[in-house]
Amino acid sequence: MLPRWPRGPLPCLQHRGQELKQQVDSLLSESRLKGALEASKKRDIYQRCIQLKQAINENKNTLQKLKKADEPTPVGNYHQKKEEEHSLLDKLTHQLQELAMSISRENITEIGELTEREEDDDSAEGDEEEDDDDEEESKESGGEEEETQEEEKQGNESHLQATSKEYTAVGNFTAQQAGDLTFKKGEILLIIEKKPDGWWIAKNAKGNKGLVPKTYLEPYHKEDGQESSEEGSEENVDVGDETAEELEVKQRTGSHWSAVRKALSEQINTVDVLTTMGAIPTGFRPSTLFQLLEEGNQFRASYFLQPELAPSQLAFRDLMWDAKTGTIRSRPSHVSLILTLWSCKMIPLPELSIQVLSRHVRLCLFDGNKVLSNIHTVRATWQPKKPRTWTFSPQVTGILPCLLDGDCFLRSNSLSPDLGILFELGISYIRNSTGERGELSCGWVFLKLFDASGIPIPAKTYELFLNGGTPYEKGVEVDRSVSRRAHGSVFHQMMMMRRQPQLLVKLRSLNRRSRNILSLLPEILIGSMCCIHLLIFYRQILGDVLLKGRMSMQSAEFMG
Predict the structure, then answer these.
(1) Which of 68, 188, 358, 523 is 20 to 30 A (C-alpha) from 386?
(2) Which of these ranges, 90-104, 366-380, 448-462, 504-518, has the smallest mean pLDDT?
């Protein structure tokens, strides 16, 4: 009997892919059964989704490393079979993401209904007790009931505090780098500290401590609906709570931030699912500046281009006419400069389940507390061979050059010592499985324009390393696979720094001609250098119409 030929790597992966397909199909059919509506069953299905997704990712990584020379025997149509296997794994990934998304949405709605029912029951019980008790008995026994209620509340709170720190692992996790904690499914972990980036400090039964991802954990006791709802709100509105604390400390002004936090909290569930399934890096968030642009016109350039009335309502504060020259008067500002966006390097990519529609950088004036100017957007270009590198150049056919021009002007009359430029890198995306569109932040960085002594920073090229999360989160990395934590040799640390996501920006000082041109613009504005003459022409037309024909500067004849 002839010996069997050994099976090559590609056929083995194809066989493994078929097994995964069968498991995914059985999981999908199981989720459609009536019994799958139970909470425990949903939890089990969600955990299996995560485990299957990890197995599919391992198959993808192995498939990408395969080469035709690795096969012990010839394989016909090798590249075609490899592409077919890759497309099959992508399809399975999409199905798992859809299933996990639907389960998470159902859990959110169930928790909301459960808490509403509990509130209604509590209020009904309170009304019945008040009706049954007499006034004299309530006076005598009121103190005793309050004491017993306080004791029960304290007991419940102490019980919650004791159990809320204990979590159960819903899947296996292997440490990715030094400082991470490895654990297995079903293991009970004690949470020591919850960080806003989603990586918590935990301790296992052996006393070992390390960082663990919160998406692999669930509360150890989930018998009470209130506990699960409180835990869900704590995880989902983590960013909003931290922002609220900073509001009290810094006394932020402007009501638009509450609307932005609400819009971000509505999207955080989608982002959490995408992060859990490995579709996006852990540091990606819904775009903060995009939400500000969606809330109204107060952060658009058109809002700042309009003349502002003086307190007397009889003249314009920032638009005056010079009768001698027949033009509008120039107005100096506290900050006036030109910056150039050079490139963005080592920006992580989402998975193939998300199609990137555009890459862009949004920038605005920021004082660490609130946005002080319009939000300017610059589109980025990239090459298929280098998708992690973004560049800014107007030499692209079919698109208006001003959208891609990296040369920008900046004017501000703010006297804040913390004044700087906030850069937010973002992508517009569409999910292939659902057609859902959205905006994600790929990282942000803040460049302060003055040093501690109030002196402007020098005009030069700055290499800025990006932060993950939102501008109100601290210590969040864009991609934890490329950590900034210092470990290893000096050479290893230098190599890690080269792999960090970064933005290259050049600040340029103004000559007399450029300063005179910019002084004809509003005192607060950010825009593209290629359209600066058009903006000045628009302001000149406003001056001709509103100011030139007036007999007196205090006359309100042409103002309505």
Answers:
(1) 68
(2) 90-104
Query: What stretch of H or E contains 428?
Result: strand 420-431
CA dihedral 400, 404, 408, 414 (to 10 degrees): 100
Tell me, what amino acid is at 207? G
pLDDT digits (tens, 9 = 90+) for 118-152: 445 555 555 554 455 554 444 444 554 455 455 44
Q: What is the dihedral of CA 226, 231, 232, 237, to 10 degrees?
A: 120
DSSP, collapsed to helix, strand or coil, labels residue 418 as coil
Half-sphere exposure of 87 (CA within 13 A, CB side): 6
pLDDT at 189 over 50: yes
In which element (H, E) is residue 217 found?
strand 217-219
Residue 376 burial (CB count, 10 A): 21
Partner residues linked to 151 by β-bridges: none
Nearest C-alpha neighbor of 261 from the set 480, 473, 468, 446: 473
Half-sphere exposure of 32 (CA within 13 A, CB side): 5
The CA–CA distances, whole Å, from 364 to 86, 214, 290, 409, 478 equal 41, 33, 12, 11, 21
- Which residues sit opposite 464 in a β-bridge? 503
Cβ atoms of 519 and 331 closer than 8 Å: yes
Other Cβ atoms less than 10 A from the Cβ of 242: the count is 16
Distance of alpha carbon 79 from alpha carbon 264, whole angstroms: 43
Cα-based distances in Å from 459 to 267, 275, 462, 505: 39, 39, 9, 10
Choose from 63-67, 399-403, 521-525 the range with maximum mean pLDDT: 521-525
Please report the pLDDT score of residue 224 as a whole number: 44
Three-state secondary structure string covering 30-78: HHCCHHHHCHHHHHHHHHHHHHHHHHHHHHHHHHHHCCHHHCCCCCCCH
pLDDT given at position 52? 85
- Between these two residues, 117 and 275, which has the higher pLDDT value? 275
Helices (H), 175-255: 225-236, 238-250
* CA 263 from centre of chain: 12
Return the exposure string of 354-363: e unless at least 16 CB atoms fall within 10 Å of the residue's CB, then b: beeeebbbbb
> How many angstroms separate the CA atoms of 443 and 3, rounded?
57
DSSP codes of every residue in 142-153 = HHHHHHHHHHHH
| Structure tokens given for 350 | 């989402």
Three-class SS of residue 513? Answer: helix
CA distance 9 to 20: 16
SS3 for 141?
helix
The secondary structure of the chain in percent helix, strand, coil, rounded to multiples of 5, reads: 45, 20, 35
pTM of the model: 0.57
Instruction: Quickly count: other Cβ atoms within 10 Å of residue 464's Cβ.
Output: 18
Which stretch of DSSP H or E encloses residue 111? helix 78-132
Residues 190-231: tens digit of each pLDDT: 998 887 667 788 999 888 888 887 777 888 865 544 444 444
Give the distance from CA 485 to its chain's centroid. 22
User: Does pLDDT of 178 surpass 50?
Assistant: yes
Output the DSSP codes for 143-188. HHHHHHHHHHHHHHHHHHHHHHTEEEESS-B---STTB--B-TT-E
pLDDT above 90 covers what percent of the chain?
Answer: 17
